[in-house]
Amino acid sequence: MTAPTIDEAARSVADPKAYADETRIHAALTQLRRAAPVAHVDAPRYNPFWAVTKHADIMTVERANNLFTNAPRPVLMTAQEEELQAAAQIRTLIHMDDPEHRVMRAVALDWFRPKALKAMKERIDELARIHVDKLRDAGRECDFVQEVAVNFPLFVIMSLLGVPESDLPRMLELTQELVGSQDSEFQRSTSPDEQMAALLDMFEYFSTLAARRRDRPTGDMASTIANAVVNGEPLGDIDVVSYYALIATAGHDTTTSTISGGFQALIEHPEERRRLTDDLDLMPTATEEMIRWVTPVKAFMRTAAEDTELGGVPIAAGDSLLLSYVSGNRDEDAFTDPFRFDVSREINKHVAFGFGVHFCLGAALARMEVNSFFTELLPRLKDVEPAGDPELTATTFVGGLKHLPIRYTLI
């Protein structure tokens, strides 16, 4: 097999199917890091952009949030999808820059501070125990992703928002349609208009929730957001439901992917699984390694506010840059032996949560969920092996395993 050209490797970052083939995407990103760490990408259906694949360059962009802005193109989408989102006036935290971003982020910030998370830990540990019990009761075989991993984080984030348990199947369907919009198994349709309809369905659900929380606040995060006052004015309807949608999708699918991919890594590296099982004090470093290994958010976009350069490459004002977190987290210059899964990796400055002012709002919650789940699972896991081929989601934004058939013994 001949190696892809630089242009072919660069276009891989805009191909959802490439992320469903880890060998292919990592080969392309490794080639880009070595030969063209800031590579121009001109892919069919997409507006052009620069792919940034080195950890150091990603950090440079993340630190310079005034020079490299989130607006108007925070996520890689086709040109048609960008037009549809702009027309729908979608405005979440990832679409905003300071000072608006800082003010809007503060609306829900208290829910993710250490005091609030400490109060939540008992509930998260309880939910971890419930879902490991479900895994035990399922028998000796299951699809770990669809039967366990999608449900635990969804219960956590919906409990935080205050969504009733009876609505969880509907929320699962909507979040999978949205985050899986590039995957044939989960997408509602190949039509961008139909895919936008899935987002509008979620917005309709959350509009009803917002109206209820304004009429009768219940002390949950949904009430906090619905009744927030920003710059002396109540938060507008589109901002409230956009906030809900971001919390629901980002707080669910990213953690699902980390738990699923982390478990796959432990299955494929039994010596690391034994180390962690024998010494649960390694769980904090193991959690960070799982997050680095999986990198559930594949990339974010930034736009240059003025003429500049990055890695010696001239970048014009208005040019868009894709920050490849997947590549940054396998950068040989940033990590010792980056393709080795190591539950005790101590120097682990991964970029899976981003960096700087846009650092993931729910990072500490995600870490707590991963820690709680595997702290409950591993001491009860007697054996585990694959029961079929794992499958990854086709995506250019958020994703990971969608199927992980396993055979196991659990007490």
TrEMBL record:
Which cofactors are reported in the record for this sequence?
heme
Q: Please, which domain of life does this record's source organism belong to?
A: Bacteria
Q: A Pfam family for this UniProt protein?
A: p450
Gene3D superfamilies the UniProt entry points to: Cytochrome P450
Cite the PROSITE patterns for this sequence: CYTOCHROME_P450
InterPro entries on file: Cyt_P450, Cyt_P450_B, Cyt_P450_CS, Cyt_P450_sf
Q: Which UniProt keywords apply?
A: Heme, Iron, Metal-binding, Monooxygenase, Oxidoreductase
**Coiled-coil residue spans:** none
Cite the SUPFAM superfamilies for this sequence.
Answer: Cytochrome P450
> Member of which family?
Belongs to the cytochrome P450 family.
Write the protein's name: Cytochrome P450
User: What is the protein's species of origin?
Assistant: Gordonia hankookensis
